[in-house]
Amino acid sequence: MRRLWITLTWLVFSILILIPLVVLTTGAFDEGGAGFVQALSRPEALHALMMTGLIVLVVTALNGIFGIMMGIYLVRGTWLSRKLRQLFNSIVDLPYAVSPVIGGLMIVLLLGPDTVIGTFFEQIGFKVVYAFPGMVIATLFVTFPLMVREVMPVLQEIGTDQEEAASTLGAYSWRTFWQVTWPSIRWAVIYGTILTVARSLGEFGAVLVVSGNIINKTQTATTLVYQDMENFNVTAANGVALVLAVFSIGLLLLMERAKKRKEVL
Amino acid sequence: MNSTLLRHKGWTWGFRTTVLLYFLILIVLPIAGVYVNSLSDGWTAFVQNIGDPIAWKAVLLTLKLALTATIINALVGTMAAWVLVRYEFPGKSLLNSIVDLPFALPTAVGGLMILVLLGPNSIVGKAAASVGLDLVFHQPAIIVAMVFVTFPFVIRAIQPLLEELDRSAEEASYTLGASRTRTFFHVILPAMVPGILSGAMLAFSRALAEFGAVVLVAGNIPGRTLTASVYIFGEVESDNEAGAAAVSILLLTLSFIILWLINLVQTRRMSR
Amino acid sequence: MHVEVRHLDKHFGQFHAVQDVSFSIAKGHLIGLLGPSGGGKTSILRMLAGLESPDSGEIIFHGKAVNHLPPQEREIGFVFQNYALFKHMTVFDNIAFGLKVKKTRKEAIRDRVSELVELTGLSGFEHRYPHQLSGGQRQRVAFARALAPEPQLLLLDEPFAAIDAKIRQELRTWLRELIERVGITSIFVTHDQDEAIEVADEIMIINGGRLEQKGTPWDIYKQPSTPFVASFIGESTIVDEIGQLKGFEQPGAADYARALIRPEYIEIGLAHEFRLLSATEKGTVKHMHFRGSQWMVEVEVGANRLITYRSLEKDTLEVGQEVHVLVHRAYLFNDQESWIAENALKADPLSVFI
């Protein structure tokens, strides 16, 4: 019985994850190493990877800071009424329930060239949709809950004892935050950061809708994979996908380590 | 550091307002926007948009496929979680760490992986074709894609429950004469059910929403392999934003209800 | 059920948890397995239940070896330390579980459960879930659940460990009475000597995986057969140089003996309180601790510091006061053997004339 279950589990993991990874890798090299290099050195590939990198940077920085603050306010913000905090708390999760495509659509509906806000920005020479800002906003929307949801449980768990102890010892809020609160949420923040990076690296649906997928302008790595597939350029698609996969696996390994550290604390 | 400056009331309130505004504008405004936008032309326009057979067939198809994928995941996930917690075997830690890979991988990459694995030129694809079964660009491939992206949910929801499950409850069952099978179904499984449920619901809502992996492997034939999210994308591409918004709020409302149910299940468990 | 265990041995990896343990228990007796944590008590209990299998040795119920039997077929009831109630079942379903397994008729199940609910004082709680009960109530449910299928042997692993000290006392008495009424052979594990002494017919002292001594609480108290038992049961002070105490100048055959002296072996007081003043020696009161119903007195005699109790009815002593100390007996031991030595001067023939 036990043998059977173990074998079945191995089988499921192999079919669903391991074999596809191998196939992807061999697919990227089916025209040899040169084919792989060529797929990546196309100007559109380099541009797409750069776009992805920029989005990751901006999104992680913004959602990192605002996510931590939001998490702290939701747990400790006594200046907000309990009811309001509970309401906000349930709203934080909404992006999880929103299909990325719909997330993109929302941005288009709100800031698109046909809307009031969109026209306003267009007139002052600032293009939002089908441009970099729109892509960032779409990714911000999708990744917002990640950091908040990592920080909140840790804050709840450690309670206010230590912070209160610090304040009775004469430390003011800023000092208390850096010397008492921060050390205990540090690993949760690192974990949340990795999650945000991973998610914004891989965001596809929302970005595809908002960007218009314009080659060499608003194309990201994931939307390039999509376009390569549409053009039946399988080797090139595999090449770019492999780069993304390697990054993701690297992040996954980091996540494992961060999780272990998080558990130690 | 100038701490008097930072302790100043104006700074504090300015900071708080900024964070809350960021939150409201980024999250609340867009969601409200979709609802307002698609209902602003009145109910008739909304009903008309939903009444488009291509639209509602896409929603129904998505529900059907997502449900299938969820059931598969509930079964496979329960088994995998059990094996990963209870048994020691070579490669256990490897499997345990790659459970999360579908979360970490970009969905487009996931879709591509399934495409090359099941594609007409692959071994699996050829084998399936020889028995007259089409995988890629047909419903089976969509289900596989959905199973792939939602794979970790059930496993990760059950694992902690199984780990904290009191071994002595099982032993108590044995000393009371119950067989292994009976113990599994009457003592262990009930403890896993909350995890299976919340994991399955998360997986279902994610499968409903999935786009990246699905768009690559689905044939996108209306009524047959066109899922709701791909339909929405198509409508946006063809500048029918009203149609896209109508289907969106249908899908959104469904997801919100599921999210609410998950919260309900979890708070009930917490109160125990 | 008559239980017999022969040469039981068990390793957990490198750790020798149970070493060559043999004993037998008469039908209907209530036995306490007493010893420090990690001493192997629970392992013995789990092997009796079939939850662990011994490396070697035999477990015999009713004259039949049951080593090969799984826990399901041993006809035992097991009460776990944390009760291990089924969280998703009501009190009724928890108690009925073992009966349902046996495919008992519905009416019979209902009768048996309500009988047990009555017996354990849980009436009115049948439809509650474990998380809605107090610790003491959970313990009763665990107990009722184990008794429901009418087992031949009841095994209890630290049954009172997770309960408040106040209720614990109450539950002990209750358990003792209940087991007497049901008349079932029972073995319970505990690290609390008061609990063992109070509840058990017989105590088995387990330490380092070995059975140190088996006997009634009184026997064990009076005649500890190993230094460990002597120090584990009751209070005591260890005296390194027993030869310095009056009446014990010749500790006996073996040299280098150490002594263990219980507070109740020692009498302390003013000169007029002793009939046999010649057997006493002088000491100084070092500390007085008020212990509610009596004084605990620390007294220094020569280089040794002894502990004893003194009634509140007698004259209150003061710190620094010089008093007479009489040591009635001491439990002597060295590496090879142990024995009890009475104060030699007490047996002084002269005393007959006084």
SSE diagram, text form:
The complex is a heterotrimer of chains A (265), B (272) and C (354).
Chain A: H1 2-28, H2 32-41, H3 43-76, H4 82-92, H5 94-97, H6 100-111, H7 116-123, H8 132-158, H9 161-168, H10 173-202, H11 205-211, H12 221-230, H13 234-264
Helix pairs in contact in A: 1-13, 2-13, 3-8, 3-10, 3-12, 6-8, 6-11, 8-10, 8-11, 9-10, 10-13, 12-13
Chain B: H1 3-7, H2 9-39, H3 42-51, H4 53-86, H5 92-98, H6 101-104, H7 107-118, H8 123-130, H9 139-164, H10 167-175, H11 180-209, H12 212-217, H13 228-237, H14 241-270
Helix pairs in contact in B: 2-14, 3-14, 4-9, 4-11, 7-9, 9-11, 10-11, 11-14, 13-14
Chain C: E1 3-12, E2 15-25, E3 30-34, H1 41-49, E4 56-61, E5 64-65, E6 76-79, H2 91-101, H3 106-119, H4 135-147, E7 153-157, H5 165-182, E8 185-190, H6 193-199, E9 202-207, E10 210-215, H7 217-222, H8 227-232, E11 237-239, E12 258-261, E13 266-269, E14 281-290, E15 294-301, E16 304-311, E17 322-327, E18 329-333, E19 338-342
Parallel strand pairs in C: 3-8, 3-9, 6-7, 7-8
Antiparallel strand pairs in C: 1-2, 1-4, 4-5, 9-10, 11-12, 12-18, 13-17, 14-15, 14-17, 15-16, 18-19
Helix pairs in contact in C: 2-3, 2-4, 3-4
Report on this model:
The complex is a heterotrimer of chains A (265), B (272) and C (354). Chain A has 265 residues and is mainly alpha-helical. Chain A has a single domain (16-264), classed as MetI-like (MetI-like fold, Orthogonal Bundle). Chain A is built from 13 helices and no strands. Chain B has helices at 3-7, 9-39, 42-51, 53-86, 92-98, 101-104, 107-118, 123-130, 139-164, 167-175, 180-209, 212-217, 228-237, 241-270. Chain C has 354 residues and is α+β, with helices and mostly antiparallel strands. Chain C folds into 2 domains: 3-232, Rossmann fold (3-Layer(aba) Sandwich); 237-353, OB fold (Dihydrolipoamide Acetyltransferase, E2P) (Beta Barrel), CATH 2.40.50.140. In chain C, a hairpin with a 4-residue loop joins β18 and β19. Classes of the chains: A mainly alpha (265), B mainly alpha (272), C alpha+beta (354). At the A-B interface, α1, α3, α4, α5 and α6 of A face α1, α2, α4, α5 and α6 of B.
